[in-house]
Design a protein that fits this description.
Elements lengths: L1 H22 L5 E3 L3 E4 L5 E4 L3 E7 L5 E10 L2 E8 L3 E8 L5 E6 L4 E4 L4 H15 L1
Parallel strand pairs: 7-9
Antiparallel strand pairs: 1-2, 2-3, 4-8, 5-6, 6-7, 8-9
Length: about 130
C-alpha cells in the first residue's frame, strides 16, 4: 500500500512538472493570414484588423493583481490588472524582455513575449508585416 501511494505521488510530481514545462515554452504562437493564435493555457486568437497599435517595450508596467490567470516563476498568463493601465491580457515571462504591447481597437491591451530578445523582435517584425 505504501509503495502504491509513493508511486502515485511520484507520477503526480512528474505530471505537474511536465505540465509546467510544456506551458512555459513559446506559447505556440502561430501567425495566420488574418490573425495570430496563442495556444496553451489562457491562449486566444487576435485578428490583425482589430489591432490599433503595436510596439515593443523594454520595461513592463507594474502588475497590480491577477484577475483570471496564473503567475508563477515570472510567467504571467491570462488576465491581470496593471497599475497604470487597468485590465490587460499577458502571455509572457518577465525575465526575458522586451515585450510586445498590442492595443486593440476595442478590447484593451495585450502584452506578449518569447524566450529570447531575438525571437520576440522577430515576432514583432512579422506581426507588423501581417498588419499591412
Amino acid at each position: 500500500m505504501e509503495v502504491t501511494i509513493s508511486i502515485l505521488i511520484l507520477l503526480l510530481i512528474i505530471f505537474l512538472y511536465n505540465s509546467y514545462l510544456s506551458d512555459n515554452n513559446n506559447n505556440g504562437i502561430k501567425l495566420n493570414d488574418d490573425n495570430f493564435t496563442i495556444s496553451g493555457m489562457y491562449g486566444l486568437t487576435i485578428n490583425y484588423i482589430d489591432i490599433y497599435q503595436i510596439d515593443i517595450i523594454s520595461v513592463m508596467p507594474e502588475i497590480g493583481m491577477k484577475t483570471n490567470g496564473y503567475y508563477f516563476m515570472n510567467v504571467c498568463k491570462g488576465y491581470f490588472s496593471l497599475n497604470d493601465i487597468g485590465n490587460v491580457y499577458l502571455n509572457l515571462n518577465l525575465k526575458y524582455p522586451p515585450y510586445i504591447r498590442i492595443l486593440l481597437k476595442e478590447n484593451g491591451y495585450f502584452f506578449i513575449n518569447l524566450s529570447t530578445e531575438k525571437d520576440t523582435t522577430e515576432l514583432y517584425d512579422n506581426l507588423l508585416l501581417h498588419m499591412v
